[in-house]
Amino acid sequence: MELLAILLTLLVYLGVRRLSVRFPRVHPMILSAVAIWFIWWLISGDFEVYAKGGQWITFWLGPATVALAYPVAKEWQQLTSMWRSVLVAVAFGTGVVMISTWITMEMLQADPVLTRSILSKSVTMPIAIELSENIGGIPPLSALFTAITGIIGSVMMRPYLKALGITDDWAIGIAVGTSAHAIGTASLLRDSERQAAASSLAMILAGVITSLYYIPLHLLLG
Amino acid sequence: MSEEKPTGKDGVTVSRGDWKTALRGWIILLICYGVGVLLQHAGVPLPGNLIGLMLLTLCLLRGWVTFAVMEQACQFLLRHMLFFFIPIIVGVAQYAGLLQEQAIPVTVAMLTGPPLIMLITGKIVQKAHDRIAARDTRDKTIKTSFEPKEEK
Question: Fewest CB atoms within 10 Å of the CB: A183, B6, B56, B144?
């Protein structure tokens, strides 16, 4: 059954990929996930079994993240010429959103455990999980929030950034990498390697900076 | 697996034949990842995949590993990166019920976050980049056409 889960995922993905060549507006990851969810619900309905098989696929996110070194190294020169604005942008962006998230959750009287789990939502998943654990959040819930943030970010990024007049490759990449981490980066890869390189750099920076922001939180709440 | 011809984004066709080079790339990539995971377990406060990414970037920048060796392995993984997220996304649907009672704060926080970050970071970087570009063109052309202060 686990093997079936892997095979089903692979087949649906390949099919959706072929489809998305003809309809570039369809997001292949989301369409695949919806299709797989539906098919699995029809043939089995046991999503724990699917998750077990899925781990074999999720494992490769690690090496795939390492592979981002390729575009990053290629665009390195460009980055070093503008590292200061990138650093300011990422530090400011992540900080403001953490604070705004906190205020939102407090004002709408959310469960404190939920607040602790949601604060790390913009950083890449392996970091988000660890950070939330440090301050007493629930790791799987953080993974969920992170995934949803990535989906929201990657669905809205094109029209939204266009509406804001942000057209520069580096600005797009940094904005998406800081807000939608690896899911956003992977979505950018469909169009532009330079944007994806900027995005992966922003993702790393956001991860490191957010970890620094978490040190006082850790001391206060942990 | 029937994969389309790996053509680089800039139109350069990747040579397919050299499987030994490709294998070397895969092995180096996995070693970087493995070292990253080991270092994480040894107490470095960063996730293993990020450490691996930094390691491979360093190797490429220093010239310890050439771009040609890494090209096939990296391009393959990057081209299919979205695929590796699919099981996680499928799993998200399972938590739908759990979040129902706290739906309002979660929804508000989730929907405001990404646009806010994109607005702040995108605008800052774009401004900085425009400034650099403007300076460059000013250096090149002797006369500047749009300098608001000299407008009298």
Answer: B144
Note whether A41 and A120 are same-domain residues.
no
Do A101 and A131 lie in one domain? The reply is: yes
Cα–chain center distance at A30: 13
> Which chain B residues are within 8 Å of A111, Cβ to Cβ?
102
| Residue B32 pLDDT greater than 90, yes or no | yes
CB of B68 within 8 Å of a chain A CB? The answer is no
Say what the pTM is. Answer: 0.75
Specify the number of domains making up chain A: 2
Q: State whether A24 and A88 are in the same domain.
A: no
Query: What pLDDT, in 10s, does the model give residues A31-49?
Result: 888 899 899 989 888 888 8
Is A90 among the domain residues?
yes
Amino acid at B77: L
Partner-chain contact A55 B87, CB within 8 Å: yes
Domain that holds residue A211: 69-221
How does residue B143 score in pLDDT terms, banded at 50, 70 and 90?
Answer: very low
What pLDDT was estimated at residue B16? 54
Q: Which residues of B touch A170 (CB under 8 A)?
A: 125, 129
